[in-house]
Amino acid sequence: MGQLIAIVSQKGGVGKTSTAVNLGACISAIKRRVLLVGLDPQCGLDKCFGIEPSQTPIGLLELLRDGVSPAKGIYQVSPRLPRLDIMPTNIRSSAEEALYADLLQRDPQKLNRIIDQVKSQYDFIFLDCPPRLDNPTYSALIACDSYLVPIQCEYASMATVGRVLRSALEVKRLHNTKLGIFGFLVTMADKRAGFTVKVVQEIRGYLREHVFKTIIPRDPRLAEVPSKQQPVIAYELQSPGAKAYIQLAREILSREAGV
Amino acid sequence: MGQLIAIVSQKGGVGKTSTAVNLGACISAIKRRVLLVGLDPQCGLDKCFGIEPSQTPIGLLELLRDGVSPAKGIYQVSPRLPRLDIMPTNIRSSAEEALYADLLQRDPQKLNRIIDQVKSQYDFIFLDCPPRLDNPTYSALIACDSYLVPIQCEYASMATVGRVLRSALEVKRLHNTKLGIFGFLVTMADKRAGFTVKVVQEIRGYLREHVFKTIIPRDPRLAEVPSKQQPVIAYELQSPGAKAYIQLAREILSREAGV
Ligand SMILES: Nc1ncnc2c1ncn2[C@@H]1O[C@H](COP(=O)(O)OP(=O)(O)OP(=O)(O)O)[C@@H](O)[C@H]1O
Ligand SMILES: Nc1ncnc2c1ncn2[C@@H]1O[C@H](COP(=O)(O)OP(=O)(O)OP(=O)(O)O)[C@@H](O)[C@H]1O
Ligand SMILES: [Mg+2]
Ligand SMILES: [Mg+2]
Prior knowledge:
Two copies of one chain form a homodimer.
Chain A: E1 3-7, H1 16-29, E2 34-38, H2 44-48, H3 60-66, E3 75-78, E4 81-87, H4 94-106, H5 110-116, E5 124-128, H6 137-143, E6 146-152, H7 155-158, H8 161-174, E7 180-187, H9 196-207, H10 225-228, H11 232-235, H12 240-256
Parallel strand pairs in A: 1-5, 1-6, 2-4, 2-5, 6-7
Antiparallel strand pairs in A: 3-4
Bound molecules: adenosine-5'-triphosphate (2 copies) and magnesium ion (2 copies).
């Protein structure tokens, strides 16, 4: 039975979408079935795979609105990554964005019911959330088993971790008793910056065993994903970014196996 | 009479808060009076100056809720920057964040009425918005004269410019006929990344004369602002980041003078 993991941070630009795409791809490359669900109305996840709403008639918006079978809103990303599927957000305009927000507001459990129908077909399902803690992120926390928080290795993004923890505790108390911490991931660690070692120490001191051992370095090759329209392991396997996400996938799988 | 400028982008982590802090400081250093208003419930702006809600009894939340004189919610940032003031967001909890959202939802013009009372005392007022286009950003677009959009020099953030333009056009049509483009600012341009030249060319080709000539380079010294709790010109005047924001301030002031 698959684990449903929401990738969450109110701080923008910390690597939520990049982690969904690259970690998802690396885990699927190690013989696990992975589904990526784009909850961000910016459609950042769709864009990382070159998915245009015109090519995918059904996505999350249609599933929320029309109640068709979720399998219709799931697409294989690429023949080279056979175990990686995506459920695109499929939002094309501000009007559709407003509709999307309204559908989630009226029935925050709807997302949960949609995902439940496909959960058994995957080992991991990652929900890519926008930089906010109200809906759609709130609905994601209601549905998921645990949450992963990327923390950009800079002062500005450390400060916002407290809000995520408080929001998650509220959801756990009111809606989803199973909600746990999947982990905190240090991203964009820049060797050139003098503060990197100190920030990593502060993060580990504060969040302890919940912080992944693997740290994702700042690597411009990772920023090419939206233009290459594929995960970094598909075009630059030897880059520091690709190696780090592979290592993270291994760390997660060995943790799951209780090693 | 001051110009009211909203700093807007749905894409997270593109340098909205950094631009508010550093551009605001540089313009105030060139003999203009500047007010920074923090609209982001994450309180990123407050944190860049080390302002804790406990030190500032009144901020934007109190002004929206209690209707006291706006001057009570404005503080001088530092004696070394005598012409730079801040109106902090002052949000301490998720409950206050929900109250803030509710106050803006019920009366989107309220922000406009508050700022109007202090506008004549400043040459520039910058509104730092969160990474979203609904409230509080929508209220900011209703109130402001023009908007500034930072565009991180990467593929992911280029794609989201269209949404900002469409949202602004809607506000202009429905609520605020004076709304204009203050400019698009390329930020975090990384010399190491192979795509930088191409991305800058695409941005200039698409947005033409609306793109500032000045480009802000990726500079780790800029990421230290939240820990130094002052703008970069106050602690590292010779850094690439400080020089770029000084140059941007000069470009803006010479443009205003019609040079
Ligand atoms: N380790 C990294 N090194 C360098 N660039 C990175 C790295 N991770 C992500 N990026 C780039 O940084 C930018 C922000 O990353 P991303 O879009 O994944 O963040 P996000 O948290 O999903 O943003 P948002 O808050 O807008 O959803 C993107 O341009 C991405 O390509
Ligand atoms: N030119 C730059 N070079 C290097 N780092 C930068 C630069 N500008 C901003 N930063 C850093 O990048 C991170 C994101 O910047 P910032 O917080 O200003 O973006 P934002 O758009 O306000 O984010 P949010 O969407 O969360 O409000 C911060 O840690 C900041 O210190
Ligand atoms: Mg994202
Ligand atoms: Mg900000």
